[in-house]
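Fold this sequence, please.
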Amino acid sequence: MDKTWRDAMLPASFRGISFLIPQTSVPVGMKGPLHEFPQRDTPFFEQMGKQAQVHKMTAWVVGDDCFERRDKLIEALQTPGAGELVHPWLGRLQVKVGECDMSHDRTQGGMVTFELTFYPDVPLKSPSARVNTQQQVVKSSTSLLDSSLGRYQSIMAKVDTARLGLLQMRNSLSGVYGVIQQQFAPFLGTYSTLTGFAQSLMNSPGALSSLFSSYFSSFSGGNFFGSSRSGGGSNSGYRAAVAETTQQTQAVSAIDTVSPLGGADTVAASQATANLVQDSLLVQIGLIVSEMPVAQQPVSLDATPSVDQQALQPPVRPEVPVADDVLELRDNLSEAIHTAALKADPAHYLVLNNHRLALVKHLTAVAASGVRLVDVTPPETLSVLVLAYRRFGDATREAEVVQRNRIRHPGFVPARPIKIAQR
């Protein structure tokens, strides 16, 4: 036989002290002010969230031992903190006691009446610390720069510059100079040619470390995430930052070692220079990566604007990283730093390894906030605009699809698998 409403009721109690409840009330619905305006017959109610579940009830303590049970209930009501209320109709609740009244009536012998108020107990959340991985990368980059400059100056102080050969220096540092041309363009005013670069190292080896120190004192991280970022521009945001740091990571691996040909002083000076440029690239990568924020989850729109509406007013959306790209950068960067650390002395090895761990931790957090790529096969030959609108509800993302899949003609996307963001 099915249970009736009487069977579903529970015996009322608070902190184990039982009593009877003839009636109870609790607010439900939404709270908010009612706005009424002169000369208008239509009022307006402003909803401001759910009402607090404040339980108000009349409680009876009945029986020959009512005074003894009354005192126990008073003690329970006056005990600080939350307690369990067994509500006949609502079940077991964690509540805190509010204002209560107790009354005695001579004509109602053997009964004590209570007017009870219970407030819902919402446990305070324990404060949780969140690691600022961006600042950790900045600190590790600063430590790496200091250690790198010190290592370079220490090695160059032991080199006999009189024994350096210009031709051997030029041959050994051609790759390093190419990296300077591509990644440290401001230095070209000082080192306009490879020969001039080699001669400067022979005549004034400390000038290079001073240039790097000055360069990073005003380095701003590349400005990929400035206030003017629109969220999808080709020269800003996650895609540009990942592309730039990926290129620099490849340059880090390209100059890991120099030619062993030449005298001992020439090889030592060339390797010290390559190490300084390599470490400086890692510092620059770290400062750019530290500007990558952990993306906030985008808010879905209630309705998708039509293509005509999007043509007049393109939708504005927060940019999120593509997790696959960030994870690939993380793994390649970790491998490049590990390889560079193998030729470092123990002290500098620890600095490089700490930088690697900080980068890996932050890039992992950035990737976790991003979107994954999925394989999508169009049902028929479509234009990229139609494909982007159907997939994302945003026709302006056509450039993203074209760039990732290197589509030759955006008007004709063949019916074959392509890579596209999950959302």
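DSSP finds 14 helices and twelve strands in the chain. Confidence is low (pLDDT under 50) at residues 227-234, 298-302.
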